[in-house]
Amino acid sequence: MSTITFINENKTVHAEKGENLLILMRRAGFEPDAPCGGNGKCGKCKVTLGDGSTVLACQTKIEGDLTITDIHGTPQDAQILMDASIPEGKTATVTETEAGNEASEEAPSTGPMLEERKVFVRPCPNGESISDWTRFAEGVGKNVRVNPYVSSKVGRMARGNKGTVYAVLFGGEVMDVFPESRDLYAAAFDIGTTTVAGYLLRLIKAGEEETEKKTEPVVVTTDSCMNPQAQYGADVINRANYALENGMEEITACIHAAIQRLIESMAKKAGISTEDIYLISVAGNTCMHHLFLGIDVDSLVHAPYNPSVSDPMILRTSDYELSIHPAGRLLMLPNIAGFVGADTVACLVATGLAEQDDWTLLIDIGTNGEMVLGRRHNMAACSTAAGPSFEGAGISCGMRGSAGAISKVVWAEDHWECGVIGDGKARGICGSGLLDLAAELLRSGQMDEYGELDESPIVLADEEHGENGKPVTFEQKDVRQLQLAKAAIASGVHLLAKKQGIELDEIKTVWLAGAFGSFLSPVSACRIGLIPEELDGRISAVGNAAGEGAKLVLMDARMWRYARQLSSEAGFLELAAMPEFQDRFVDELMFPE
Q1: Fewest CB within 10 angstroms: 91, 104, 119, 304, which?
Q2: Concatenated DSSP letters of 435-477
Q3: What is the DSSP letter of 20?
């Protein structure tokens, strides 16, 4: 056995000879940045050894004792937009379509997904033997399934409280009973490929009678983190392949642990116990959905690229290493297709796109870019493999949108003016900065429509203005990565319009969902052709609409059923199966003249 010492982290672990250093770091509890999944292509998992040399962890086999003095590839905290900016007056008009399965039957008909009911349990008459549960169920006034845990305490509680108890209900399920009214909480999560956003909601306020309904559900606090699955690959394909080659357990367990940490963090900030949380809702793309549930992802990486399951599900949180109330439930929103997932459904719930009278385009620009074009419940959806360039992977000095990232770029006649997140020295460039830079290169004539730079590399921050004396540069090879990403998104927009039988100028509104969509410049996006120029001036950000949708299904049971309706209504367009996709993609590699 070899001894591996991590100096800065004050940690020592043991390894067998020949073990891969990246795998060892994962096993040791680190979350090394490896967007390529450990294939040696991205160069992000660098570590400095005790002899001063720098190596890629994924390409290093342990042959003896090692000292690690610096881990370069630890993921940075990204900008995570926690609030959605849903256009006023654009919420959905919910239709009363019943799902007709267990997932809908467990949910209440209206109001928040949780209900508190004041129940009077009549005394058992002398000479009769009527169970505590039977008399309790009579007081509830609706059919409820027997819960042994609740039945064991309801009789004594009622006798000690003059016959009155307060029941926590989830549809036909009695989750718990208490001698007094109490606040009831739920948590919503948007599991993105790069980041995870969590929201703690108070669904019921203590002391509020059923008939009053004075208090609306409120967001008590929020929290977020990087998705730890990024260490197995920046994109869904790399992660799916890792799961197929190495099994699901490791990559599934790490996201369960991340969600649990967020639950505990939010509960602590709110001053409550995790057992005060009864429900959790989760939205994510189809791959994130499957990996979270431990569902085999084989069908996602082989034609015809269909999901293993699309239906909404209500599950027990205890089956997924999530520690909340012992009777806690996990609500998994439905998927649309193999690469258009529950996060898109959540966006549709939040924005009310299906209810719009005019053609509206929703785009979530990310590693796996999803988009929906529709109006009046006529919707077509597709996904595009934009790749992780906008998250910094594959770009020489690319990084996520965190402190030290160049996020805005302007060419000022003879020099570059850069806006840096945190106003410190530049450490790299993030997605919004890349779009600005490309737009300014085109505007100033320093790059032609083919993507050829007049000079390479371009220095955005020299040694004096770069962190640790390292310059931030942009190279010719980086242009190619940007072209591939923007061509994928633009092709999807064009082909969705064709699918719907409309011209681009008939699209009246474009909504950009997600953090990246909120921080990018729409002008720059149109200038480089990421979004067709015809749509310039019609673009607005709607923030983390997926997170908003995940909240809404907890706040209003009708939204839970509405989510199922939307997932079945949205038609799916498989771009790769379209004969014209390759030609359109090649055309979109060019920048507008």
Answers
A1: 304
A2: HHHHHHHHHTTSB-TT--BSSSSEEEE-TTTBGGG--EEE-HH
A3: B
Contact in structure between 314 and 222 (CB atoms under 8 Å): no
Tokens of 377: 């419940």
pLDDT tens digits for range 458-499: 999 999 999 889 999 999 999 999 999 999 999 999 999 999
Distance CA 360, CA 353 (A): 7
8-state DSSP, 337: B
Q: What is the CA radius of gyration of the chain?
A: 26
Buried b (16+ CB within 10 A) or exposed e, 17-54: eebbbbbbbbebebbbbbbbbbeeebbbbbbbeeeeee
What one-character-per-residue DSSP string does 55-80 give? EEGGG-B--S-EEEEEETTPPPPPP-
Q: What is the DSSP string of 386-413?
A: --GGGGTTTSTTB--SSTTEEEEEEE-S
Is 559 in contact with 108 (CB distance < 8 Å)?
Answer: no
CB 146 within 8 A of CB 216: no
Longest dimension (CA), the chain: 98
Q: What is the pLDDT of residues 295-348, one digit of tens each?
A: 999 999 888 889 999 999 999 999 999 999 999 999 999 999 998 999 999 999
- Helical H segments across 194-285, by residue range: 236-246, 249-270
For 507, list phi and psi in degrees, rounded to 5: -80, 115
* Full-model pTM: 0.88
